[in-house]
Design brief:
Length: about 190
Amino acid sequence: MDKGIFQAYEDEIQALEEEIRLLTEQYEEMRQESTFFSDEEILKSIKSLQRETQGETKGHESPSDLKAQLESLETDLSFLMEFTGFNFTSHSKKTVEKTQNRTVQKHRLSGKCHSLSFQLEFQLLEMQNNEKVSAVVSDLSIIMESREDSNVSKFVSRTEERGDLLTFFRSLATYAEWYEHRRRTFLHFK
């Protein structure tokens, strides 16, 4: 047989093995997250859901009120996206560890700010002491489309070291806005 055919089969086998590995990881993550809840908590959630679906709970708004509230929230979100320039396209959250007063979650976030794409991956440690909740960002990883500018690369590196998401979003909004102005100006002269 031809070596090309063998190579095609090998490539297909490798792709299938990778898909099996990814699906196994997803299954393990889902199984792990479900073990964080006790049987009692699961039963409470099931009973609560049953009451809601049967209409036994009181104080819930009518479907038309909920629809109006949803439309209002969508309008607010649209305004905020237009105002800030941020458009988040995906977000995933995985609980890594959960105890009574400590939770560690891994977040993945991607989106665009004006015309610049970005992806973030970080861990969020939330600790609760008495009535106070504190959150710490760690293992911040930022991937940006426009890294050819050395100043942006330096900024991203510093932000990753410090784990300062607020500064990242503020600076990205300003940079992306001016990046868009520069891009339009250069297009005008071409």
